[in-house]
Every structure is written in structure tokens, then in C-alpha cells.
Specification:
With about 325 residues, the protein is an alpha/beta fold. It has helices spanning about 1-5, 20-35, 50-55, 80-100, 105-115, 120-135, 150-185, 195-220, 235-250, 270-290, 305-320, and strands spanning about 10-15, 40-45, 65, 70-75, 140-145, 225-230, 255-260, 295-300. Helix 4 (about 80-100) runs antiparallel to helix 5 (about 105-115) and helix 4 (about 80-100) packs across helix 6. It is built from eleven helices and eight strands. The chain has an eight-stranded mixed β-sheet, sandwiched between helices.
């Protein structure tokens, strides 16, 4: 069963091409696990905020309870703007403490430019993911991340390595500066760095530990897995195969493929023809990714939102073979 195969991990990422039903599958898995008595947190990192739309609730950037069958389903939507603001404010506070006052205005201008720089959003969202995993993994049996479309997710999951390497470079530069300062003092010169010089190292090392910890969490197949959601059509399947390749290169376990909204064979000739075409595409998918379990979820006409709608999705997931 799909749930037994992947939902026993501590952390589950659900991703795929836009419009394939990632939020529905993530929420359905969460509710199905909660029915078993688990405490589950669903976190949306997709700026589209489909999580609130699906549950027909206002969720936002603070944890809200979505359902409480035998266990609990809580929800959280990462607010990109608020996340970037928090991220830059934290950097600003650190820079103000560590830089000489004469450099504060220059640092502020740099941060304003960084607000719209490529990678700022992803870096801030990654910090939020790391924060959630660090702070809340003990409070929940399962954390499900409902991710943004494919390209953003791959860039996001590659960031722990990239930012870890960047932090290492900053620490190396810091070591060189310390040696230069020591040499300057030995020559009787002045070292005008602020007295909190060791704080920068502490901040950088804490950031490195956070990225290392997240990297270990993401690449441990006993704790974390990824579910790729797709439609049984040519383009979504091609994108899913590429997503699988990118995730495997990052060391991320791919626990399952979910072919969502499969057309029925017994609902008229049009859908029957579509169903046969979809089956051909899935044969191609199985040929390209033979080792990843593939589950098929049927098209459910008129699926409603709210807990009743998610409950129907959970029923379908629970019976997926």
C-alpha cells in the first residue's frame, strides 16, 4: 500500500509538475495517517497557497489545526514575503552587532539589493524548512512538505550543500582575518574590529550545523522520502523522470510515483480512449523507472474541498495498490 510504503517516515516531500494534485495527495496522506492516530503537520512551501484552498480554511504562516480524527492534522503555509522579511531582519541584526557603525548604512543598502536577488527567496524558505524540522519533528509523527512545482523544489533541496559550502568559505575568510588581526597586534598596530568578533564565527557555525543537519535528514531514506505526483500524460511523465534523476543525484530517496486522476474505462468512449492512452504512457514510465513503486489514483468527479473532500482523497489513497 502507498501509505505503508512511504508515510512511515518522519519527513515526506510531495512534489511534481504544477497542476498535478500535489496538495491533494499531501493532504490525503496526512489525514490517512492521522486516522491511524498519528500527529501530522502539513507544510506548504508553494506560494500558490493551495493548502488553504483545499481545506477551505485560512491557514497562513502560523500552525492551524485542520482535522482531528484519531490523531491530528495541522497545517502551515510558508509566507514567502514574511519569510524573506524575517530572514533579512535576522541578518540585519547580526550585521549591526558585528560591523563597525560606519558600515551600517552600506550593509543596509546591500540587504535591500539582496531582497530581490536570485536565491534570496529559496534561501529564506530553506531556513524555514530547517526550522520546522529542527523544532517540530519531536512534536509530530510525520511532517509532510507540499512543495512548489518541480524546478523550485530541486533548487531548494540542492541549497543545503550550496549554502554549506558558502558558509565554509566565509569561515575560512574569517580565519584569515583572525590571523591578520593577530599579526597586526603583534606589530603594535590596531585591530578595529568590534569586540563581538567571536559572535560571527558562532553564527556561521550554527548556520553550517543547521544545513548539515537538514542535509542528513533529507538524504536519510529511513527518515525522509519523496513522493512524485504526476498525470499519466507525456509532458508530466517526462518532467517526473527528470525530477527523479535530479533528486537521485542529490541523494534523496524517491519512495513512490503517484499517477493522479486516472481516467475510468467504464464512463463512456471518450474517457475509455483517454484511459488506454494513459496506460501506454504509464508503461513508458514503468520502463524508465522500474524500481520505484507506482500507484494509480482514479479521477474522482466533483471532488469537493474542505475536510470532506480531503477525506475522500484519503480513502482513495488508503486503497491504492
Amino acid at each position: 500500500m502507498l501509505l505503508g510504503d512511504v508515510a512511515g517516515r518522519q519527513v515526506l516531500f510531495v512534489g511534481g509538475k504544477g497542476g498535478v494534485g500535489k496538495t491533494s495527495v499531501a493532504s490525503g496522506i496526512a489525514l490517512a495517517r492521522a486516522r491511524e492516530g498519528a500527529r501530522v503537520l502539513v507544510v506548504s512551501t508553494d506560494p500558490a497557497h493551495n493548502l488553504g484552498h483545499l481545506w477551505d480554511r485560512t491557514i497562513g504562516d502560523t500552525i492551524a489545526q485542520l482535522a482531528a480524527p484519531d490523531g491530528v492534522v495541522d497545517g502551515l503555509e510558508v509566507d514567502p514575503e514574511r519569510t524573506v522579511e524575517r530572514h533579512l531582519a535576522a541578518v540585519r541584526r547580526t550585521m549591526d552587532r558585528l560591523l563597525p557603525e560606519r558600515l551600517h548604512r552600506q550593509a543596509a543598502r546591500h540587504l535591500e539589493l539582496a531582497r530581490s536577488a536570485p536565491g534570496t527567496h529559496e534561501s529564506a524558505v530553506l531556513d524555514r524548512i530547517a526550522e520546522v524540522v529542527e523544532d517540530l519533528a519531536g512534536a509530530y509523527d510525520l511532517i509532510v512538505f507540499d512543495t512548489a512545482p518541480t524546478g523550485s523544489t530541486v533548487r531548494l533541496l540542492a541549497l543545503p550543500d550550496q549554502l554549506g559550502a558558502w558558509t565554509d568559505a566565509l569561515l575560512s575568510n574569517r580565519d584569515r582575518a583572525d590571523r591578520f588581526g593577530a599579526a597586526l597586534r603583534g606589530l603594535g598596530g590596531e585591530d578595529d574590529r568590534p569586540p563581538a568578533k567571536d559572535e560571527l564565527r558562532a553564527v556561521l557555525e550554527a548556520r553550517r550545523r543547521r544545513f548539515v543537519g537538514l542535509r542528513e535528514q533529507i538524504t536519510d531514506p529511513t527518515r525522509t522520502s519523496f513522493v512524485i505526483v504526476l498525470l499519466a500524460e507525456r509532458m508530466p511523465i517526462a518532467e517526473s523522470v527528470e525530477l527523479h534523476r535530479s533528486l537521485a543525484a542529490l541523494g534523496v530517496d524517491i519512495g513512490a510515483l503517484v499517477a493522479n486522476r486516472r481516467s475510468p474505462l467504464d464512463a463512456g468512449s471518450l474517457l475509455a480512449g483517454q484511459s488506454l492512452l494513459e496506460a501506454e504512457h504509464l508503461v513508458s514510465l514503468r520502463r524508465q523507472l522500474p524500481d520505484v513503486p507506482l500507484f494509480e489514483l482514479p479521477l474522482v468527479p466533483g471532488l469537493s474541498s474542505g475536510e470532506a473532500g480531503v477525506s475522500a482523497i484519503a480513502d482513495t489513497l488508503a486503497s491504492a495498490i
